[in-house]
Amino acid sequence: MKKLNISSLLLLLLLPFLAGCSKDEIIFDSQLPRFELRQGYQLLEVIVPQGTLASDKIYIIGEFNGGMDAVGDPRWQLEKAPDTDAKWGIYLNPADFINGKTLADGYTFYSVGQGEERSLENTPVVHRDAPDVGSRLNVIVYRWADYFDKPADPGEIVHDGYVIYVVDNSEFDDLTMYAWGDAEAFGGWPGMKPTGTVEINGVKYKYFDTGAANEGLNLNLIFSDNGNEQLPDYNVTLNQDFYLELTPGSVNEFDPSEVVTHDGYAVFVVDRTGWDALYLYMWGTVNDLNGAWPGMSPTGTQTINGVQYTYFDLGAANCDAGLEEHVILNNGNGKQVDDVVVFNLDRDVYVELTASGAKEIDPATYVPSEPTPDPTPDPTPDPTPDPDPEPAKEYKIYIQDLTGWSSFYVYAWGDKEIFGTWPGAQPDVTETVDGVTYKVLTVEGSGESENLIFHDNAGTQYDAVGITLDKEYYIIAYPDKAEIK
């Protein structure tokens, strides 16, 4: 009797199925096309590292577009796919390439928030693959530089002079700090870049060492996007460290002592109810989360951008856990506002609460609404009128412009902004005196002191001269200085 080898028989039966499971046919979701092709364009679909935020600004850079000079140019900025955070895309028109270069000459990617592209071994990356015009190519970015660049331990840093610590919410791509006043302490415009980054008590700062040689100087700091968009001047005397917060339109003092470490996400409430007490109750996926009715008491108070919030920490164990909760704010004594927010405990929430309702707010732009006025206020007596001020007189400032700039502006600071806020005034009147053509500005004054800054509104500027508004002036403006005739 012939014996059959059962194992061999089974293997033969399975061979057709095994042949149909080639690993070459496995396609991951992130590899699927997310952008439509465009005629005349090369399409790069970029798989980005985990931790890339949807709000990040990512650029492609290389010899073909000027390298880092391309940062900020929308032609070279990637866009996020609408249906996933893992893939971004960019359409490239070869007609925009410079110096005869192409993608084959090398390119990499740069995240404004997280730095340069890096390999898994933390080495620089250069891609050279390129799709044909009218087709697409998948590119993988494995890491951003921030993955490897952890903030320095503040106890290990040896600083040079006093330090300017900055919480940078400016949205600038390339932060720089310039100083003028007693000296141009950090070099010519646009000044210095951050000395480094450091995390102190959970707050991440960019910091600028000001140099021991500059101690005691009175300086006006100008933070800018590497000489482009800039924030208002901020005056300091270098006799201490300074903590500042930058927003898209302002420079503000930052108080490290007010930094609060939260337990998970929090609900922040501007309480305008007038209630004697405030509680937060949640129901939904889990009822009575953080306490039965009336719910939890406030965790504390915190001031953000000058506005005081009452906040409720939701607990790290409850956050990002897929819960859907309805939030009720109440006074524990019959008054409540239902469904202030319904959310998944996956973010901080900021609300303005009144006795009749609530609305979500953005703490970066929120301005408290005016309280309802008393319908029967006490009459206010007429104030005693101030004495009439001395009448102002008109004076002319004559400027002989030898700068060679394409545009010429004058800004003044001192007792008053006689030419308005930055960038000031652009003289549009000329007069010829003794054969010399002057740009003329007419001002009103009664002895005020002013400091003039001449600039081209494009990054070139210098302190000109100080004047007193009690006479006319003739001034010569050179490319790098000014003098009174």
UniProtKB/TrEMBL annotation:
<feature type="compositionally biased region" description="Pro residues">
    <location>
        <begin position="370"/>
        <end position="386"/>
    </location>
</feature>
<feature type="signal peptide">
    <location>
        <begin position="1"/>
        <end position="19"/>
    </location>
</feature>
<feature type="region of interest" description="Disordered">
    <location>
        <begin position="361"/>
        <end position="392"/>
    </location>
</feature>
<dbReference type="InterPro" id="IPR013783">
    <property type="entry name" value="Ig-like_fold"/>
</dbReference>
<keyword id="KW-0732">Signal</keyword>
<protein>
    <submittedName>
        <fullName>Starch-binding protein</fullName>
    </submittedName>
</protein>
